[in-house]
Structures are given as structure tokens and as C-alpha cells.
């Protein structure tokens, strides 16, 4: 696979008056076009920092991050970032919320609006477009947040534990939902999570980070027979527990 | 609508009864106080020349309504309060926005703002008279000075407490600092801005009255000072009663705004 995104020898430290904390050390990996990668690791291993770096919100202290050969920068049109919570604004309707990115980038064309309306329709939110976000369920909010991200038509999606604020049942459903949407829209995605099952059921490859300072400990390709085509179904495949134990051991060993 | 169960009906009735009871007791308390005041002053228990009485206050108000002077004083005080309130709201908001946009400036100015905020503004009033003269302008500047520094500090602190992830969201969508300001910080702070307006309207009234005490030719504050100098306690107490009503009306005005936008 061609590399769409590649990180080479990326390191990053946080500076406070109390001293310097190395958060990530010598991270190198690449993600191919259309691939779904998951990054797992213990809490505090710098997973979210890694996404902020890829997104260009912060700059690495050393090493390089390139997307299709070019360095990434904040708000690069090619990158969509989905945060832990939906952060839909209560002072806007659902429709105005999903248009936020287009509004900021001044791309509110009739064509883009139509595309967004189409997505709202496809993903079952068009009846709620005129409502305030508080009228939506947790899962619907997360779907709306994904549409807000997809509205800018990013090639690469960064998902920062996007399901962690949901209750368990909703979480499974939404992960299923979002996983399918991302596959259907043909996006490349990087999911950060501390939930191994989530990583295995959604990703093509799982990147295991060590505890702080985060280092890539192993990269495990995940594949299931064709009949297990959704995250929920994959959880029932016999390979699932195999991958689970494998990654669990990796985490234990280096944790 | 669904049929209401007996228990729910009873709950609603109890609530309704409770509200009526509270309202009734509030009215009774007022009537009791007014009656006690009136009786005490008529029976000579208190000196009605010094303590006035509800009936004398009503009579005074009636006379002043008849000759139009009450409207003049009320209008002047109300006008000055509204102008200074508007100035505080706009200036406070603009200053807080600028401080948020330029963090270094806000760091430099912080100790000065804190000092100005804790300075008793009544100390400035005589200075303002010398600088600006014995006129309405002094009253308005005095009122603005009472409220504006606290307003800037409150709004700026509120702006900084906005969820960092919401800010991150805007940046991740390619937004600028200006986008963060006008798409997240300001709209997300509307409830805080309105509750700050509630404080400001009260403080402006305080400032206007201080200003009118010292430099005015009309207004309720002027009326209070004038009646104290000429020992017309009916005028003075009437002015105070009207101030009570005025401050309530202004406060409720902002509450209506709050219900609409808050």
C-alpha cells in the first residue's frame, strides 16, 4: 500500500516550570490510503498528543510528519479531527452545527450544503436538522459530529476516543455505525482508543504504544474472513480473541 | 395530552397551593409593615416629621406627579442609568474580547484592573467633578467607573473558562483565533454575559446615585440630597421608595432578556 501519512522519528515533550516531560519518543509508522489504523496504549502514553501532532495543532520537537509527501499544518483541508465528546454547540441547530467547518472555511456553497443534507438524510438525522443538539441521543450526537467532520471532505480522519463518553450499549452501536460510515465514504482513518476490542473490531492494523514516553512497540495487522464485515460481527469471530490476547500480551509486556 | 393520574393531579394542586400561599404571605408582610409604619406615625409613636408615613409618601408622590417634577427626576435618573449601563455593557464586552485576543496585554494590565476594581469609586467622584464639571457627564462617568472594571474582569475570566476542546475543535476545522472568539467564546458566554448585565445594572444605579449626590441639578439622588438639606423627609423617603421600584424594574427587564436568550 502507498503511504498516505507517514511519521518518521517523531518526538515530543511537554514543558512546564516543574521540568520537561517526554511524551512521545521516536515514533515512526505510516498509514496507507483507505486504511483504518488503531492506536492503543495505556492512558497517558501520549495517544491524543500524537493525533494533535498529526493534525498539525502542535509541532513535533524532532522528526517529520508528512501527508502525501507534504508536511501537515493546522486545519489542513485533508484532515478531519473527531474529538472525545461531540462538542455540538447548543446555541446552534444540528444543521448549523454540521455546517460549522464549511462556514469557517467559507465553503458554504449550494453543492456542499446539498452534500451535507444528503449525509444527514443517509445517516438518519434529517428529521432532527432544525433541532438543538440536546434533543439528540448520545449516538445521534456522535453521528452529527462525524458528519460535521466529513462535511469538509477530509481524506484522513483522526478519531480521538470518539466513543468513550457513551454508555456501553450505545458505544457498540455507534462504533458499528461510524465504522461503516467511514468505510462507505472510503476514508483513511486513525482511531485512538484504550479499548482493545474497539481497536480490533474496527481497524485493519493496530499500533501498540508503550507507557510514557510513548514508543511504538508493535504493529499488528488484523484481518477477518469476509463474512465478518462489521465491527459488531467481528467481535463474534473466533480470530477476535486471538488478536485480543496477542495485543493484551504486547501491552502487558511493555506496560 | 395524556390523562393525568390522581397522584400527579394532587402534586400539581399542592404546588399551585404552595405558590399561592407564598404570594399571599409576601403581600401580607408588605401590608403589615406599611400598616405598622402608618399607625406608629399617626399615634405619635414615631415622629412623623422625621420618619414620614406611607400616606404622606403617597400624597407627596401624587403632588409631584401632578406638577410633573417626579417624572423629571425619575426620567433623569433612569436615563443616566440606562446610558451608563449601555456603555458598561459595550465597553466591558469589547475590552474583555480584546484582552482575550491579546493575552500578553491582559497579563500586563491585570494588576491595574484588579486595583481599579477594588478602588472605592466614590473616592473618584470629587475628582470627576473637577475634571468634567458639575453636570450629567460626571454622573454617567461615575456610574460607568463603578461597574466597568468588575465587568471586564468577570467577562474575561468567563471567556478563559470555555472548554478547551471546543477551542481545539475550531482550530482543527481550520479556524482562526477570530473564529474561536465569535463562534465559540462569545455565543457560549451569553448566559454569563447576561448574568453580568444583571450585576451591572444594579451597580450603575449605585454609581448614578453617588454621582447625583455630588453633581446634579435633577434626578432621584439629587432629590434625596436636596430634601435632606431642606429637611423634607417625605420627599426623601418617597425617592427611596421609587428607587426600590426602579431597581426592581431594571432587574426584571434583564431577567426577561435572560429568558429569551439565556
Description:
The complex is a heterodimer of chains A (255) and B (262). Chain A has helices at 47-55, 94-98, 100-104, 110-122, 138-150, 168-184, 196-202, 231-234, 238-254; strands at 3-16, 19-32, 36-40, 62-67, 70-71, 79-82, 156-160, 188-193, 205-209, 216-221. In chain A, 35% of the residues lie in helices and 26% in strands. Chain A has one domain (3-87, 157-254): Rossmann fold. The model of chain A has no long low-confidence stretch (mean pLDDT 85). In chain A, strands 6-7-8-3-9-10 form a six-stranded mixed beta sheet, sandwiched between helices. Chain A is α/β, with parallel strands linked by helices. The radius of gyration of chain B is 24 Å and the shape is flat. In chain B, α4 packs across α10 and α6 crosses α7. The model of chain B has no long low-confidence stretch (mean pLDDT 92). With 262 residues, chain B is an all-alpha fold. Chain B folds into two domains: 6-46; 59-261, MetI-like (MetI-like fold, Orthogonal Bundle). Chain B has helices at residues 6-42, 48-51, 54-66, 69-101, 103-118, 125-132, 136-160, 164-172, 177-188, 190-214, 220-229, 233-261. The chains are: A alpha/beta (255), B mainly alpha (262). At the A-B interface, β6 and α3 of A face α8 and α9 of B.
Care to give the gist of this entry?
The complex is a heterodimer of chains A (255) and B (262). Chain A has nine helices and ten strands.
List the helices and strands and how they pair.
The complex is a heterodimer of chains A (255) and B (262).
Chain A: E1 3-16, E2 19-32, E3 36-40, H1 47-55, E4 62-67, E5 70-71, E6 79-82, H2 94-98, H3 100-104, H4 110-122, H5 138-150, E7 156-160, H6 168-184, E8 188-193, H7 196-202, E9 205-209, E10 216-221, H8 231-234, H9 238-254
Parallel strand pairs in A: 3-8, 3-9, 6-7, 7-8
Antiparallel strand pairs in A: 1-2, 1-4, 4-5, 9-10
Helix pairs in contact in A: 5-6, 7-9
Chain B: H1 6-42, H2 48-51, H3 54-66, H4 69-101, H5 103-118, H6 125-132, H7 136-160, H8 164-172, H9 177-188, H10 190-214, H11 220-229, H12 233-261
Helix pairs in contact in B: 3-12, 4-5, 4-7, 4-10, 4-11, 5-7, 6-7, 7-10, 8-9, 10-11, 10-12, 11-12
Amino acid at each position: 500500500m502507498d503511504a498516505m501519512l507517514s511519521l518518521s522519528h517523531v518526538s515530543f515533550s511537554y514543558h512546564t516550570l516543574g521540568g520537561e516531560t517526554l511524551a512521545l519518543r521516536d515514533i515512526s509508522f505510516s498509514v496507507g490510503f483507505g486504511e483504518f489504523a488503531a492506536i492503543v496504549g495505556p492512558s497517558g502514553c501520549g495517544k491524543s498528543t500524537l493525533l494533535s501532532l498529526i493534525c498539525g495543532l502542535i509541532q513535533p520537537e524532532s522528526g517529520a510528519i508528512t501527508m502525501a509527501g507534504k508536511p501537515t499544518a493546522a486545519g489542513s483541508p485533508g484532515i478531519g479531527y473527531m474529538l472525545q465528546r461531540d462538542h455540538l454547540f447548543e446555541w446552534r441547530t444540528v444543521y448549523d452545527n454540521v455546517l460549522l467547518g464549511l462556514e469557517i472555511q467559507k465553503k458554504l456553497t449550494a453543492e456542499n450544503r446539498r452534500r451535507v443534507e444528503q449525509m444527514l438524510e443517509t445517516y438518519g438525522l434529517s428529521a432532527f436538522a432544525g433541532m438543538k443538539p440536546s434533543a439528540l441521543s448520545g449516538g445521534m450526537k456522535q453521528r452529527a459530529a462525524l458528519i460535521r467532520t466529513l462535511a469538509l471532505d477530509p481524506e484522513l480522519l483522526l478519531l480521538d476516543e470518539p466513543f468513550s463518553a457513551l454508555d456501553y450499549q450505545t458505544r457498540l452501536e455507534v462504533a458499528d455505525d461510524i465504522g461503516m460510515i467511514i468505510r462507505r465514504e472510503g476514508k483513511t482513518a486513525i482511531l485512538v482508543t484504550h479499548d482493545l476490542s474497539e481497536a480490533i473490531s474496527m481497524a485493519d492494523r493496530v499500533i501498540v504504544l508503550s507507557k510514557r514516553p510513548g514508543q511504538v512497540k508493535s504493529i499488528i495487522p488484523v484481518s477477518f474472513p469476509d463474512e465478518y464485515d462489521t465491527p459488531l460481527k467481528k467481535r463474534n469471530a473466533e480470530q477476535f480473541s486471538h488478536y485480543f490476547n496477542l495485543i493484551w500480551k504486547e501491552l502487558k509486556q511493555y506496560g | 395530552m395524556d390523562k393525568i393520574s390522581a397522584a400527579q393531579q394532587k402534586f400539581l394542586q399542592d404546588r399551585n397551593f404552595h405558590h399561592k400561599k407564598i404570594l399571599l404571605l409576601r403581600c401580607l408582610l408588605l401590608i403589615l409593615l406599611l400598616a405598622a409604619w402608618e399607625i406608629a406615625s399617626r399615634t405619635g409613636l414615631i415622629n412623623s416629621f422625621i420618619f414620614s408615613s406611607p400616606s404622606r409618601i403617597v400624597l407627596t408622590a401624587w403632588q409631584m406627579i401632578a406638577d410633573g417634577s417626579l417624572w423629571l427626576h425619575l426620567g433623569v435618573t433612569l436615563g443616566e442609568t440606562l446610558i451608563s449601563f449601555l456603555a458598561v455593557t459595550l465597553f466591558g464586552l469589547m475590552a474583555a474580547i480584546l484582552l482575550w485576543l491579546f493575552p500578553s496585554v491582559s497579563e500586563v494590565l491585570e494588576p491595574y484592573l484588579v486595583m481599579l476594581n477594588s478602588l472605592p469609586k466614590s473616592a473618584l467622584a470629587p475628582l470627576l467633578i473637577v475634571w468634567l464639571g458639575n453636570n450629567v457627564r460626571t454622573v454617567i462617568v461615575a456610574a460607568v467607573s463603578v461597574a466597568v472594571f468588575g465587568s471586564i474582569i468577570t467577562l474575561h475570566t468567563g471567556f478563559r473558562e470555555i472548554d478547551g476542546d471546543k477551542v481545539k475543535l475550531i482550530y482543527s476545522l481550520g479556524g482562526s483565533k477570530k473564529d474561536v472568539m465569535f463562534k465559540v467564546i462569545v455565543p457560549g458566554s451569553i448566559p454569563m454575559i447576561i448574568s453580568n448585565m444583571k450585576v451591572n445594572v444594579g451597580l450603575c444605579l449605585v454609581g448614578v446615585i453617588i454621582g447625583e449626590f455630588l453633581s446634579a441639578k435633577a434626578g432621584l439622588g439629587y432629590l434625596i440630597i436636596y430634601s435632606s438639606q431642606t429637611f423634607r423627609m417625605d420627599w426623601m423617603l418617597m425617592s427611596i421608595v421609587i428607587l426600590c421600584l426602579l431597581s426592581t424594574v431594571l432587574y426584571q427587564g434583564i431577567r426577561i432578556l435572560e429568558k429569551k436568550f439565556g
